[in-house]
Amino acid sequence: MSTTDAFIIKHYTILTSFSHRSIYIKLTDTIGYIHYEAYLDSSDFHIALPIESVYQLITNCFAEDTGYNVNISVSGKTMTIRFHAQINGFIMFDFPVHIKEKLITTDGQLTLSFNRIEERQLQVERKTDKLVEDVNISLKNVVDEYRKVYADTQNEVETRCNNVQAIVDERCNNVQAIVDERCANIEVSINKWCADVQAIVDIRCNNVQAIVDTRCNNVQAIVDEQCANTILHLENTINNLESRIKKLESLILNSEIDIRMNTTFVSLSTTSITTPADNYLKFDKLYLFENLQQLHFIPITLCDLSKCHFPHLKELYLDGGGKTHFRSLLGISGMPNLEHISIINAPGLTAVNTILPPNHKIKSIHVKDCPGINMDGLSIYCRVNHIQLVKT
């Protein structure tokens, strides 16, 4: 009967299982997508406990229970896991386990590359979505604020008009009551006077009504003009933001970077660079050229390629210039997608195939005027690995 457990510690996912006399441990680095796994028996732990108890100690340490902890370190292609357990406050166990890195096949390497590309794409999409969301929120806040101002202004205008109308109605009613009362008391003697008063009252009421209408129309015109200006300003703001976003996108696509000490600028979108003086190159900036496919050193004055890290490079041209400065291909592992390499007039170079990494993608090698290279050994290596060798 087998037991399987899973854990997560820092950036590692851990899978363990116990079956009969062996313990299986597998760790995956979720940052570098590197796998470490091993089958262990009781002789690998050097402690006087049954293997079932050892497995219980290991799972408790991975679970980081009270009194249990684990320390993970990597050296080269070997991972060291040190388990520390304190039981009941006085029984101590401290033992290490060494696990080798699991080699990744070509398909696995391709899957790893796709995972990294997808991760970068997701980061860019998240940043873009966040920027769009922030712009939308800002625009919504501006629109809501102006709508609120418009609504408050409209309500204030309506309130003032209602108050004025109420005052006018009240005053008209009061005047009418006074006139009616006086007319009733002296109706016979002052009919003409009452008629005159009534006429005066009507004129005043009409004047007041005209003034109120004029003021209401003026206020309405002012409100309409402010709303129109607000909407126009908002539209101009939106157009300005859209123009800035387009300019920003254009600047990113057409941006350049200086890669040489003499401030030569090269577009970030370039796919090929030829340099006649590599000792003045800014190697710390070359990695920014994500579309770089071809790199020509004419001549190369470096002693090796340890400063060169170009993950997307496919073609490399090295001209030694007839001098012995360039002596080794050490560092070519920093170009994992390299397919074609040309080595011209480099008498100081003595080895090629012994330096190439085991999982390279090289399809052709061109060698000319390099007397230090063992061409027989290189020919055998190329035939075995199906690489086209051109000797001139």
Report on this model:
This protein has 392 residues and is of the alpha/beta class. The protein has 3 domains: 2-103, Dna Repair Protein Xrcc4, Chain: A, domain 1; 113-254; 257-391, Leucine-rich repeat, LRR (right-handed beta-alpha superhelix), CATH 3.80.10. 44% of the residues lie in helices and 24% in strands. It is built from 5 helices and 15 strands. The protein has helices spanning 51-63, 106-185, 191-254, 283-286, 375-384, and strands at residues 2-9, 12-19, 22-29, 34-40, 68-75, 78-87, 91-102, 256-258, 265-267, 272-275, 294-297, 315-319, 340-344, 364-368, 388-391. The strands form 3 sheets. Strands 1-2-3-4-7-6-5 form a 7-stranded antiparallel beta sheet, with helices on one face. Strands 10-11-12-13-14-15 form a 6-stranded parallel beta sheet, covered by helices on one side. Strands 8-9 form a two-stranded antiparallel sheet. Helix 2 (106-185) packs antiparallel against helix 3 (191-254). The longest helix is centred in the middle third of the chain and has 80 residues, at 106-185. The protein is elongated, with a radius of gyration of 43 Å. The model has no long low-confidence stretch (mean pLDDT 84).
